[in-house]
# Entry
Amino acid sequence: MKPRLLIVDDEPMIREVLTENLKGAGYECEAAAGAAPAMERLGAGNGIGLVLADIDMPGESGMVLLGRIKEQYPDTDVIMVTGVVDIDIAIQAMRMGAADYITKPFNLDQVVLIVNRTLQQRQLIIENRRYQKNLESLVQERTQEVIAKSKEVERLYDELKVAFQKIHATYDTTLEALMEALDMRDTETQGHSRRVSEFTVAVARRMGIQEPELTQMRWGALLHDVGKIGVPDAILRKPGKLTPEEWVEMRKHPELGRRILASIKFLEGAVPIVYCHQERFDGTGYPRGLAGDDIPLGARIFAVVDTLDAMTMNRPYRRALPYETARQEVIEFAGTQFDPKVVECFLQVPEPEWDSIRKRIKTELVSRGIGHRY
# Structure
């Protein structure tokens, strides 16, 4: 059974359009004209699982409503709706717990897609929480057995090792779900984040990188474009070339990504790739114009494999280029765009290994029912 939705907007026409559209998508909807009636409906226990709230409303704003909902009903997701594109407000809303951010005028099909995606992510969080709770119970139970039976210590150690591996797998699943959501917005690069994260690991291993740095590099490559969540759809999904003004907005995404991830402790080692993945070895990149070894190693590795994936995958405006073409491109720009040391290790990876990574990722995605998009 789908959760009920609550649409909060002071404009009756907006409430009516959203309600009718989402009802057509199979959702039961309620509506409220402001923050106060919205809190009354939430308090009535009607099984509301998701709120779409306008930011600019008379009386208490949508941001105030967001804070109250997250304080009193932390498991209720909130999607913010606004007629003004303001990156700082978008980031503030995400930090306060908003699940997503929609700008007016909106595409109704896109609204349904965002609602579906948000509820799917909430289900994933609930399942992860249930798993972690069961895991805690398992650890406590096994600990008591160790006290009583010291001979089982070795077996317990193995079980805990597997449990922590599953926790890391849970992190991976959550991060990949976030990237899949972002890929739905940037349709030219669907599946790109999964591939470049594994490509980064392949080169990093040749450079002698080991755990835990290896995992942090993989996560950083996976999340490299997370800052695009703050780029307006009109720019991110524009079919033609961007204007100089639009490029200024697009080039903010590394900084936005750094700000989004800055307070997440387990991702602190991934932030340098997110922040520096557009830097160039000769110092002509952005956002800080770093050069040479001042660029974090993970970002230097990412720059090479990102080019490989961009050139060897199909795009709407051209067919995939041969591996040899991409290889020559990397060689040609060693010392300018790319770190020569990284290029040397990149060239040690045989072409069949790249193909194997692509096929493995595609197989995994197909098994999850989403491979047709990649």
Remarks:
- The chain is about 60% helix and 5% strand.
- Strands lie at 4-8, 29-32, 48-54, 77-82, 100-103.
- The chain has a mean pLDDT of 86.
